[in-house]
Specification:
The structure holds two protein chains of two kinds. Chain A is α+β, with helices and mostly antiparallel strands. Chain A contains 13 helices and 14 strands. In chain A, 37% of the residues lie in helices and 26% in strands. Chain A has a five-stranded antiparallel β-sheet with strand order 4-5-10-6-7. In chain A, β11 and β12 form a beta hairpin. Chain B is of the alpha+beta class. Chain B has two domains: 75 residues, Ubiquitin-like (UB roll); 75 residues, Orthogonal Bundle (DNA polymerase, domain 1). In chain B, 35% of the residues lie in helices and 14% in strands. Chain B is globular, with a radius of gyration of 16 Å. The chains are: A alpha+beta, B alpha+beta. At the A-B interface, β1, α2 and α7 of A face β4 of B.
Chain lengths: 297, 164
């Protein structure tokens, strides 16, 4: 029977209450949202905390997808199912819908949250790759106020983030830019499993030329892997199979997969190449298929 | 710690450890052993129950987290002494053999039919993709959900009744 080691359970009734509890209880306290990554790790004794602070009551204030003219703001307690089912999010960022369809399973998606996924910082976590691809920034609140951290600085290593002991991830912000689209590719061993490799791509174009392109990979490094070299290589070029192939080669060069039960490092590099090509190809095809007056993001 | 919640429409209150999982609370503290305790790793879905109307895996929810909320288990599926259409469908279409996954399958597919009364085969398979059945190969489970869907809509015919 797997149960976590003993801990004290607290329930936060507001964001300030949660941060106050974290400040008072210190680094042996941890916030728990959906709990679908944290509780399994605690059962396996890979993680131990003296206090768990349940923040599910904050879903009312931190569960939202707000579309503004220049950005989309997503509350940290927004659950996977809500992200999957949000028509606004799907319209602006198709990558979200595609990634959410292959994250765990519907029951897990009923509980798991975007904030919990990012803070867990599992190297194979899909939403981290989505946020990296879309150049998201994370709003972190602590006793001294708010600060915003880009995805490149948010991760400090496997299971480590920039969120301090008395801080809390509040919101994730996604810049909206015109004439762009996105796509997500994932190879897993079976339904609902962690990725062998996942790849997100977002592309923006003007008059037949790529103005910007971003690629984010999961499961091929200590954290989600953004590959600026691909952005440099694609900017200013018209989209082509040659360009996608070049990006795929760059993806394989710039990632650091390890051999494990999900596959060899060599196979994962092959997947990084191929999935980068596929995701870029589909993102561009989506821009072409979008009527001018509906283009966003 | 003291927790209070609604389980199958009745208020229950117990003194529990913070680390107690909802599945053990239901089985060991309330005696509701219809909810099965399977893989312990949120993979198999045998422990699925409803939390505030949505199916969740009760091996990965703390009992304390359900405090103040509504839980519905397989014991709460029949209404007024009548089996739910999805229960009759699983009987009729042989949606089970050993029965271990069945409580979870029933809770998940009941929720599916509530939100989508006429699901496609793909939608049914997606809905149960977080649940493992080692007996049926899923074919008869899918057929059961289709039977219940038709039953509820009054679309079932006499022919369906004799050849599932």
């Amino acid at each position: 029977m797997q149960v976590p080691a003993p801990f004290d359970y607290e329930r936060a009734t507001s964001v300030d209450h949660a941060i106050g509890l974290l400040a008072r209880l210190g680094p042996t306290a941890r916030l728990v949202a959906g709990g679908h990554s944290l509780l399994p790790m605690m059962k396996l004794r890979l993680a131990h905390y003296e206090y768990l602070i349940d923040i599910n009551d904050l879903h009312g204030v931190l569960g939202y997808v707000e579309v503004e003219p220049t950005q989309i703001r997503i509350g940290a307690m927004t659950r996977h199912r809500e992200l999957l089912e949000s028509p606004e999010l799907r319209r602006s960022f198709p990558i979200f819908h595609e990634a959410e369809r292959v994250i765990a399973d519907p029951l897990v998606r009923n509980r798991g949250t975007i904030g919990g996924s990012l803070c867990q910082a599992d190297p194979s976590e899909d939403l981290s790759a989505v946020c990296t691809t879309l150049d998201a920034s994370c709003l972190i609140r602590g006793p001294d106020g708010d600060r915003a951290v880009g995805m490149a600085d948010f991760y400090r290593g496997p299971y480590e983030t920039a969120v301090g002991a008395a801080e809390m991830l509040i919101e994730i912000r996604f810049p909206l830019r015109p004439n762009g689209s996105s796509a997500y590719e994932k190879v897993g061993r079976r339904a609902g499993d962690w990725a062998v490799v996942s790849c997100g791509a977002a592309v923006w174009m003007e008059q037949g030329v790529i103005t910007d392109a971003r690629v984010g990979l999961a499961a091929v490094g200590p954290n989600t892997t953004g590959i600026p070299a691909i952005s440099h290589a694609l900017r200013g070029r018209p989209p082509s199979e040659e360009a996608y192939a070049e990006a795929g080669v760059l993806a394989a060069q710039h990632c650091t997969p390890v051999t494990d039960q999900r596959g060899s490092a060599k196979y994962k590099r092959h997947l990084a190449t191929e999935l980068t090509r596929r995701a870029l190809r589909r993102a561009v095809a989506r821009i072409d298929a979008t009527p001018d007056n509906l283009r966003a993001g | 710690m003291q927790i209070t919640m609604m389980v199958n429409g009745e208020q229950v209150s117990r003194d529990v450890e913070g680390r107690l999982l909802l599945v053990h609370f239901l089985r060991d503290h309330l005696g509701l052993t219809g909810t099965h305790w399977g893989c312990d790793t949120s993979n198999c879905g045998a422990c699925a129950v409803w939390l505030d109307g949505e199916p969740v895996k009760s091996c990965t929810v703390l009992a304390a987290m359900a405090g103040g909320h509504e839980v519905r288990t397989i014991e709460g599926l029949e209404q007024f002494g009548e089996l739910d259409p999805i229960q009759r469908a699983f009987m009729h279409c042989h949606g089970l053999q050993c029965g271990f996954c069945t409580p979870g399958m029933l809770m998940t597919t009941r929720a599916l039919l509530d939100s989508n009364p006429n699901p496609t085969e793909e939608e049914i398979r997606e809905a149960i993709s977080g649940q493992v059945c080692r007996c049926t190969g899923y074919a008869t489970i899918v057929r059961s959900v289709q039977w219940a869907s038709a039953e509820q809509a009054g679309r079932r015919t006499v022919t369906d009744d004799t050849s599932p």
